[in-house]
Each structure stands twice: as C-alpha cells, then as structure tokens.
Amino acid sequence: MVVYIWSLNISNKDIPALNQSANVSSGDPLEPHDIPPGLSRTGHTVTAVCLGIILVFGCLNNLFVLLIFARFRSLWTPINLILLNISVSDILVCLFGTPFSFASSLYGKWLLGHHGCKWYGFANSLFGIVSLMSLSILSYERYAALLRPTKADVSDFRRAWLCVAGSWLYSLVWTLPPFLGWSSYGPEGPGTTCSVQWHLRSSNSMSYVMCLFIFCLLLPLMLMIFCYGKILFIIKGVTKINLLTAQRRENHILLMVVTMVSCYLLCWMPYGVVALLAAFGRRGLITPVTSVVPSVLAKSSTVVNPVIYVLFNNQFYRCFLAFLKCQEEPSIHGQNPQHSSKEDPHALRPCDEPSLHRNIKGPQNKEQHTLSLVVHYTP
After folding, report:
1. What fold does the segment set 38-329+347-376 form as a domain?
2. pTM exceeds 0.70, yes or no
C-alpha cells in the first residue's frame, strides 16, 4: 500500500512535466504519429552537410546567373528569358526551402510546426515544378527555333512571357489541390522535410500522386527527349552533307543533350519513383534512408541547372568569360571565330536564334546549293 501511494505521488508530480515535454511547443500541432521514423544522429548530420553544400552552391550559382543577366543587356532575348525563369525558381528554392530542411536536419526534427510544414511542402513543389516545366519549354523553344526558316525576332518577348507565366500557372494548378482536399502536405522521410503525403493509401492521395508523376515529371521528360532528339537528328543529317562546318557543332549539341537528359533523370526520377513506391508499394518498403537520398538529389538540381543550362549556351559562355575578366559586353557583331573555341565560322551571332539557312554559292555551281545547307544553331 505504501509502495502504491509513493508511485502514485511520483506519477502525479510528473504529469505536468511529462505533458510539457510531450508538447515541446504549444504552437506545434504535429502529432507524434504524424512524424515518420527518423534517422540516426549520423544520418541527420550527413543529410545536413549535403543540404548545406547544396544551399551554398545553389545560391551562389543562381545569383551568379542573375548578375550576368543584369550586367549584359545582350542576354535579354526571348529564349534566354526562360533560362532566367529557371534560375529564379531555383534560387527561390534555395531561399525558402533548403534553409529550413538544413536547420531541421541539424536538430534532427522538423522545427516550423504544422503550418510551416505545409508551407515548405507547397513552396518546394511549386518552385520545383516551375523549374521542370521551364526545362521542357526550353527544349521545345529550341526545337521550334531550329525549324523556323528565318531568324527569330529577338525583340518579341510576348511568346517568352507567355511561356514563363504558363509555367507558374501550370505549377499552381498542381500544387494548390492539397490545400483543397486532394491529398495533403505533411512530413516525409525522416521527419526533417515536408512534401506531399506519398505514403497515404487512400484513393484520394494515390490518384494525386499518380497524376503528379505523369503530368509534372513524365510528360516534361518525354517532351525533352523528343525535342532534343529531333534537334540532334537534324544536326546529324546536316553533318553528313557539310562535315567540316557542322562536326564540332554536332559534338557540342550531343554533349549538351546527353548531359541535360541525364541530369534530369538523376535529379528528379529517383524522387518520382520513390513517391510511387511509397504510394503503391508494400508498407515499410521505403525506409528513412531510401526516402532522404532522392529528396537531396532533387534539391541538387538547383546547383547543376545553372551550370548545364547556362554554360552550355554559347552566348552565356562568352558573357560569363567577360564577367570573370571584368570586360565590356561581348560584341554582337563581328565575333571572330578564330578567338572562340566554342564557335565555328558559320556559327550564329550571340543574339541570334537558331535557324536553318540555305547558302546558294552561285550560278557557276548549280548543283552545290543543295549540298551547302548550314545549320545556324546556338544551344
């Protein structure tokens, strides 16, 4: 009886303390059963280091792109506006997403509460889909520009602004439904990041995951493969006719296409596959480690996008070198091909869009006009 009373007194005394420790923050409505099993302390540290590297280099790379845009007016062309949209969406992820997951990984738990979790999931999904759609739109614009019989009007920004606005509107269409009852945002992986609730097995959530995978990941990838494949096919066909003037161009475009598609697959496809497995696979199939790796890879796209989609662009490359050397804006006209390792004598000038031109040599060689097709394409 004495022992019973002693135990009861200790329990009554500790009830407030236990309640306080169970609710670290009265403003944090996240329930314990809502938070997935976490990583070990070492796992959280490794994740925090990776996110810290992505945060630093993602901010620096995209800020560097924005500075180059602001420094050189010749870069303000319609197709480059789509490149700028990619950098803007990526730097927004670095500013409004990665810092929170980085801090949460350091502490080993989510720090911003239920409403902060929803904001994080929405913001990262919004900016990520904008980036994905911009990449696919960029591939289509390059393909369409290659098929135009004349040079594009570089002063007509209406189409480019429509593409930019369309990417944001399309992203909003797919990221607002979780607030309206179609699926929901919540903790994912080890509980230090938030996203769509992939693991929920309701028909409501599973249908949203499937639609998101098809319309925001698979279709952009198919469009990129189709457009860049067509570009490479056209360039390769011309190379067989005019080998000397197009061989280097073909090699450069081949490297660009392979790198773009490969990095897209590496950064985003693991995340999409893990989301599908979490939604449709057996329970417990996706462990915390399995879920955190694709998430980190997806965030790494903010680092590689500026490198791939800017430095593979010849016009940006020249402005990049001029920026590093503190030189004036590269000349739009009269670019000497002998002083540029990335250009050939028939390359397009910096502010020109890709197009096809037939170069007729003259009446003295009537048959040669069909063999002198020169592809003017600046990727």
Report:
1. Rhopdopsin 7-helix transmembrane proteins (1.20.1070)
2. yes
